[in-house]
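The following block was generated as part of the benchmark described in Methods. Ligand: NAP.
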Amino acid sequence: MSKVYVFTGYGGPETQQLIEGPVPTPGPGELAIEVRAAGVNPADWKIREGQLGRHWSLPAPMGREAAGVVTEVGDGVEDFAVGDEVLGLVAPGQGGMAEHTLLRASTTVAKPEEISFADAATIPVAAATAYDATHQIELKPGQTLLLLGAGGGVGLMATQIGRVHEFTVIGVASATKRELVESTGATFIESGPGVADRVRQVSADGPDLIVDLVGGDALRAVADLVPDRTRIISAADPDTAAELGGLALARTDEAMAKITEVIQYGLVDPHVDAQFALDQADQAIAAVETGHAAGKIIVVP
Ligand SMILES: NC(=O)c1ccc[n+]([C@@H]2O[C@H](COP(=O)([O-])OP(=O)(O)OC[C@H]3O[C@@H](n4cnc5c(N)ncnc54)[C@H](OP(=O)(O)O)[C@@H]3O)[C@@H](O)[C@H]2O)c1
């Protein structure tokens, strides 16, 4: 038997619970893993609330990204074998917050020895998103990237990727995250009323690109800083981005492998801020659901 954290109905955290079920068996193109760590993302509670559709069959396992050790491979899987250490996106109907889960082989990569399971669990969703967000429109060294939501799971890695590329990075976050954002080499700007004026004080010509990880009014407040609105990319709120003339983040298949290498070489730190046991997954999800996480939160079975 295997423990798995699920939600049993669309709604609030009261629908979440830890249940026990059979160890899942991989179908064609899938891998079974013993989970060592699972990343927690805003998508987990957005799915539970029904914000991303209501097509999940209930009870629905929670957690989209995981790292662990392969225990079984499904038909047609050639690149992985039992005992391999891997990281990847969970297969449909599966969740990372579990003792055992299934990954899709096509969205799984080998975990390099240099990367801990804890850090590896942040790669398939958060790190890969940070990679895509900083590569969709290529800036040149010295150009200015403004990151809205710079202190969160995706934001903190995106600021570091920006610095690796020698962009000038302006990170907008709340005052409590000043040191964290500055530790990446970014210029910190406090979020909230007057944010656009504070950005203008450090970047008279305005940024060359805005990457939005917050959306809504926070995005509207900075949108005028770029003369060309197609220089706004949003991972958080594609509707508001489109309304402003910007773009939705486009995810790519290659991002996971590319950012794994970058993290392996120590160029980006996923910054795991807190780890919770599987029976404390409610606390892990709640910490992300506040919308004010600092870096990444993971669940360790
Ligand atoms: N499209 C995709 O494939 C994809 C993939 C991953 C994530 N996402 C989305 O991207 C967004 C960020 O994800 P994440 O994992 O980084 O979330 P996260 O870890 O919860 O971080 C969100 C950050 O936003 C900051 N924030 C909240 N209000 C703000 C404001 N008014 N101004 C500036 N910062 C503000 C919060 O910190 P403060 O305390 O500083 O406010 C927090 O650090 C989410 O909406 C998520 O759903 C999309």
